Amino acid sequence: MNISATILLAFGMSMDAFAASIGKGATLHKPKFSEALRTGLIFGAIETLTPLIGWGLGMLASQFILEWNHWIAFTLLVFLGGRMVIEGFRATADDDDTPQHRHGFWILVTTAIATSLDAMAVGVGLAFLQVNIIATALAIGCATLIMSTIGMMVGRFIGPLLGKRAEILGGIVLIGIGGQILWSHFAD
């Protein structure tokens, strides 16, 4: 793979994380750049590891991974999205709650894993090509870091416009990403 193909692949792999981070940014009360960068680092680190894991698994058992990755991603994203929707409706009843300024580490890790399973599948495919998997994984991770950080900041501006509906919309976006992953698997 040449450098332009690697960059296109990297930014293509970061789009799910970008969409999810917009939703995450919208649910927070004026997230700071440091929180956006933290989210970007978590998403980027996970997105760097998953193609490496996929590449390793591709050497061992590519058929099993390709057969189940869409179901795993769908389940995780629907669960997280459903939880956000429920919390969004619950938030309307709790007007006294202090605004949330930061997402929990494990929520971000789970979301990052769910949005990066496609990168694991790509890693499986890359196992059969002559590519520098380390450079490719780092490119994917860096693109995801950039796009997730930008997504959080975009969400910062969308959140106040949506008010308490931001968490509901963020949950719907995650469910939509999960549905799109499942749809694209069966459409192929």
β-strand number:
0
- Based on secondary structure, the structural category is mainly alpha
Query: So what's the overall shape?
Result: globular
Rg is: 17 Å
Strand content: under 5%
Helix content percent band: over 70%
Low-confidence stretches: none
Q: What do the pLDDT scores average to? A: 81
- Number of contiguous helices: 6
Return the string of H and E elements.
Answer: HHHHHH
Give the biggest beta sheet: none
User: What is the CA–CA distance across the termini?
Assistant: 23 Å
Plain-language structure description:
- By secondary structure, the protein is an all-alpha fold.
- It is built from six helices and no strands.
- It has helices spanning 3-13, 15-27, 33-93, 105-126, 133-162, 165-187.
- The chain is globular.
- Helix 3 (33-93) crosses helix 4.
Summary of the model, kept short:
The protein is mainly α.
List the helices and strands and how they pair.
Layout: H1 3-13, H2 15-27, H3 33-93, H4 105-126, H5 133-162, H6 165-187
Helix pairs in contact: 1-5, 2-5, 2-6, 3-4, 3-5, 3-6
